[in-house]
Each structure stands twice: as C-alpha cells, then as structure tokens.
C-alpha cells in the first residue's frame, strides 16, 4: 500500500489519527487526514466537558462535525471518551457519591445512545489507574463512588449501543513489567471472568526519552490479547526526530503486527504542528505536511507485515 490506511489494510488492520474539528477547514490538514487514515478519534470534542457542558444539556456540534466528516469520507470513528476523571464539566467536578455515579451513568447512556450505530469502538473509561508502583486505581471523584464504577460504565455503554466495541484506554501501560500494566491486566482478567462487557484495551503510547518504547511491547500486547480482548495502539506519538524516531515508530508497528488481535494503530494528530505537545516533533508529518522519516518507516513496516 502507498498510504498508511492501505498498507495497514493489507493485514486487516486500520490506521487512524486524532482529528480536531477546528482544523478540518485547513485543506493541507484535511487532505492528508483523508488520504492516509481510515479511523478517526475526536481529539477533544467527545469528552465529557464538550458533550455535556451543563447537566442534562448535551452539545454535539463539534463532535458531529468530526463524525460527519469521517463517515462521509468512508472512515470509522473511535469515540473518546465516555467516562474520565479529567476534562469533566465544571458542574460534575465537585459532585460525589450517588449523585455523581448517576450523573456519570446518565452521561454514558445519553452519549452512547445519541451515537448508536456510528461508533466502531468507544473508549468507555479512560486513565483510571494510578501511576507509580501501586498498580491500583487512581484516586478521583469517580473512583470514590465505589470500585465498581468502571464496570458500571461498561454495562451502561453496552446497553446503550450493543454494536459498539467497548474499550478500556490508558497510558504508561506499554511495559509489561510496570505495576500499572499489571493492574490494568488484572482488571481486564477479572472483567472477562465475570462477564463484564469489555471487548478491547487501548494503549495510548505517548513516548518520550523518559518513557521510551519498551522492548517487551509485543509481550504486553500478546498477554492482554490472550485474555480474549482486542488490543489497539490508540494515541501514538514519539518525541524526537530523524532515524531514532523512525526506528522507534517502526518498533511499535512491528509489535502490533506480531499480535493477531492488535487490530489497529492511531497516531495522536496529523502534523507536528497539530500535536498536543506544544514544542517537539512527535508525529509522522512535519508542520508543512511533508512526510517524515518516521512516516516512511511506519509505511515500510506495515508493507513488510
Ligand atoms: O479550545 C480552548 C480555547 O478556546 C482556549 O482559549 C484554550 C486556553 O487554554 O484552551 C482550549 O482548549 C484546550 C484544548 O486542548 C484544545 O486545544 C484545553 O485547554 C486543553 O486542555 C486541551 O488539551 C487536550 C488534552 O487532552 C486535555 O485533556 C489536548 O488537546 C489533547 O490532545 C489531549 O489528549 C489526551 C487524551 O484525551 C487522553 N490521553 C492523553 C492525551 C494527551 O494529553
């Protein structure tokens, strides 16, 4: 294949990107996005603060712009994200207990129902585990409603959109030997054993010199897949430049291709200038839209299988 989506498609996988609604009018941006990618994640527009700015008043304008652009260009959509400790609307941030639990479940139900049939995969819960050595849950207002908040969110999402794949999504879960990775793994194993409706696990994959691509990435992906879930790389970016960056990108693609249930890769933006990282060059296209060495290494690795 001569594009990322075509090359990934040769093994039945997708290649995606995060899209920002306010960049779709930039023709350099939308031309690259349309040509190279066939899975789209809204970078911010489907988060809780964007879709429910006031309690029980839902706002889908910017999210719809992305979903409509994706669907009219033949792309699938990854919904991001139904429940998260971060990017909560102001009214939710200071809630607690039963009222917060019910507000969260109502949000999951309303948003997943509104988009029923249009979402390939939902990130149902995002970033619920703590960093560091505990392997436990992150403290948050949602966690304090009870440890079962995550499974409750998954059950509500399944009921609202039975056709969508339901994913748990987190960062720093790439290295198999990290406590956080083990914590998420144990949760997924528990969910599968008790019939909690989870279909997949997303690995954000935000890498830099302090958090490099682990050499055991394939082990991590393979072990999660063996629990009976699909795995995806969901927000890939790698700080750096040149051949070092290109090699690290290649390693991530290789790890995914080595696991049958690793069904796709999404990079977190189109050009370096679109990245959430204010400075730095972590993506596959430079600020002018030129293909970088990292692009070529990803494309070649996808084509090599
Ligand atoms: O749109 C407003 C603008 O009107 C305002 O003037 C400006 C002033 O701060 O803020 C703008 O909103 C910003 C938004 O990005 C759009 O640029 C927010 O402040 C800023 O917080 C927000 O950052 C996003 C971040 O998530 C928030 O959680 C990044 O774009 C987005 O790339 C990032 O994505 C996350 C994933 O959702 C989860 N995993 C990690 C990943 C990277 O942090």
Characterization of this structure:
- The chain has 305 residues and is an alpha/beta fold.
- Helices cover 39% and strands 17% of the residues.
- It has 11 helices and 9 strands.
- It has an 8-stranded parallel β-barrel with strand order 1-2-3-4-5-6-8-9, surrounded by 5 helices.
- Helix 2 (27-36) links the parallel strand 1 and strand 2 (39-42).
- Helix 6 (97-114) packs parallel to helix 7 (149-160).
- The longest helix is centred in the middle third of the chain and has 18 residues, at 97-114.
- The chain binds ligand G3I.
- Ligand G3I is lined by residues 43-44, 86-87, 126, 171, 204, 235, 276.
Low-confidence stretches: none
> Can you write the helix and strand succession as a string?
HEHEHHEHHEHEHEEHEHEH
Number of strands: 9
How far do the termini sit from each other?
11 Å
Class by alpha and beta content: alpha/beta
Reading side by side through the largest sheet, how are the strands ordered?
Answer: 1-2-3-4-5-6-8-9
Strand content: 15-25%
Share of helical residues: 25-40%
Q: Mean pLDDT, as a whole number?
A: 98
């Amino acid at each position: 294949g001569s594009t990322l989506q075509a090359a990934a498609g040769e093994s039945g996988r997708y290649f995606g990107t995060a899209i920002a609604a306010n960049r779709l009018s930039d023709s350099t941006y939308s031309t690259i996005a349309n040509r190279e990618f066939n899975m789209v994640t809204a970078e911010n527009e489907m988060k809780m603060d964007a879709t429910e700015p006031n309690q029980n008043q839902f706002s889908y304008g910017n999210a719809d712009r992305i979903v409509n652009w994706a669907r009219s260009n033949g792309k699938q959509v990854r919904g991001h994200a139904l429940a998260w400790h971060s990017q909560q609307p102001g009214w939710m941030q200071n809630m607690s207990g039963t009222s917060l639990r019910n507000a969260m479940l109502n949000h999951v139900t309303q948003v997943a129902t509104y988009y029923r049939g249009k979402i390939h995969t939902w990130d149902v819960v995002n970033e619920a585990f703590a960093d560091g050595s505990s392997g436990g849950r992150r403290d948050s207002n949602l966690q304090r409603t009870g440890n079962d908040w995550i499974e409750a969110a998954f059950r509500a999402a399944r009921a609202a959109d039975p056709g969508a794949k339901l994913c748990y999504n987190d960062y720093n879960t790439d290295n198999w030997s990290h406590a956080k990775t083990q914590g998420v793994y144990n949760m997924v194993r528990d969910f599968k054993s008790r019939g909690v409706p989870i279909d997949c696990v997303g690995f954000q994959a935000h890498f830099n010199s302090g958090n490099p691509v682990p050499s055991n990435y394939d082990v991590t992906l393979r072990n999660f897949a063996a629990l009976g879930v699909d795995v995806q790389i969901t927000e890939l970016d790698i700080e750096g430049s040149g051949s070092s960056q290109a090699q690290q990108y290649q390693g991530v693609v290789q790890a995914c291709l080595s696991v049958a249930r690793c069904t796709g890769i999404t990079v977190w933006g189109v050009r370096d200038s679109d990245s959430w990282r204010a400075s730095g060059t972590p993506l596959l296209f430079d600020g002018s839209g030129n293909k970088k060495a990292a692009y070529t290494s990803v494309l070649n690795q996808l084509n090599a299988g």
